[in-house]
Structure formats: structure tokens, C-alpha cells
Amino acid sequence: KQMVGKAAPEVKLPVLGGGAMSLAGLRGKVVVLDFWATWCEPCRRQMPSIAKLHRELAGQATVVIGINDDETPEKARAYIEEQKLDWTQLYDGPAGAARKAFEVTAIPALVVLDREGRIAAYEIGLAENTEKVLRDTLRRLGVGLLP
User: Fold this and answer.
1) pLDDT at position 108 over 90
2) Nearest-angstrom CA–CA distance, 72 and 134
3) How far is Cα 96 from Cα 69, in angstroms, rounded to an integer?
4) What pTM, to 2 d.p., does this model score?
5) What gap in Å lies between CA 4 and CA 26, rounded to an integer?
6) Inter-residue contact 136 to 145 (CB < 8 Å)
7) DSSP H helical segments within 36-96, as ranges?
8) CA-CA distance, 74 to 143, in Å (whole number)?
9) How confident is the model at residue 132, as a pLDDT?
10) Do residues 20 and 14 lie in contact, with contact meaning Cβ atoms separated by under 8 Å?
11) What one-character DSSP code corresponds to residue 9?
């Protein structure tokens, strides 16, 4: 929580599927970062609500980005294909450079960046109200969502 209001750390990670992505390249957009792994049961339970959010955000200047830290990129890619997760997925790997940079101590973790690249919200773990908090934050940042 102490990171809310601070500039997001500069992170550049490989994209599962090829290439690399830097968070700095997303300035001007609201960004939802979802830190997850296939072995994390609460992460898997949260995926349907992330998928729904991703569909609602289509065509808006808002993106959902998964940050996976599985043992191998192959394991992550197999799960992504099997579950048909169609948003950008970055690979942090077991070293967890992005996780360390964002001070993520447990997953799932959702971090929302505003259009200036500052951390607007920071939710660790899966709680009853996680999705509501996420949606309220996005609305506060001017993102149009279904009621």
C-alpha cells in the first residue's frame, strides 16, 4: 500500500509469445497489472473476472497485463493457451524482478497505474471485494465500465 501515489518502477519484461514490453511505453493509458502464477489457486480463481474486465476495456485507452512468474515460460504459455487468456502476458520468471520492483510479497496482486504511470491502487490477495475495488479505481481514473 505504501507504493500508492508513487511513480511505477521502470520494468521491461519478455512477452510470452515473443518480443518485450516496457511499462514506460504505456504512458497515457490506464494499466492493470495482474501478478500471477499457474500454481497459485487464488490467481486461477480470479482469472474469469480479469477476463471479463479485459473484454469490457476493449477499445479504451486501458490495458490489462498479466505478469507471470512460473518456473518456465513454457508452463505459463501452456496454461494461457488452455484457458484462452487473450490479454498481454509478460514473463517475470522465478527471479521475479518485476515482483521485487513493485514490492509484491504475495500473489495474486493487482496494481493499477494511472495515465502518468503512477500507482493508483495496489491489492494483494483475493478478497470478496477485490473486483469492486478494482472497478471503483478504474472509474475514478475515468475509465468507462459496465455497471
Assistant:
1) yes
2) 29
3) 6
4) 0.94
5) 18
6) no
7) 41-56, 73-83
8) 34
9) 87
10) yes
11) P
Residues 101-113 have a mean pLDDT of 95
Beta bridge partner(s), residue 124: 109
Q: Quote the CA–CA distance of 137 and 131 in Å, as a whole number.
A: 10
The residue among 108, 94, 130, 109 whose CA lies nearest residue 42 is 108
The residue with cell 519478455 is 14
User: 3-state class of 105 per DSSP?
Assistant: coil
- Grid coordinates representing 125 are 490477495
Is the backbone peptide bond immediately before 108 cis, with ω within 30 degrees of 0? Answer: yes
Contact 16, 68 (CB under 8 A): yes
Give me the pLDDT at residue 87, please.
95
Query: Residue 58 corresponds to which cell in the numbers above?
Result: 476493449
> What φ, ψ does residue 108 adopt, rounded to 5°?
-70, 155
Where would I find the beta strands (DSSP E) of the chain? 12-14, 20-22, 30-36, 62-68, 88-91, 109-113, 119-124
Query: Quick one: angle between helices 130-140 and 41-56, nearest 10?
Result: 30
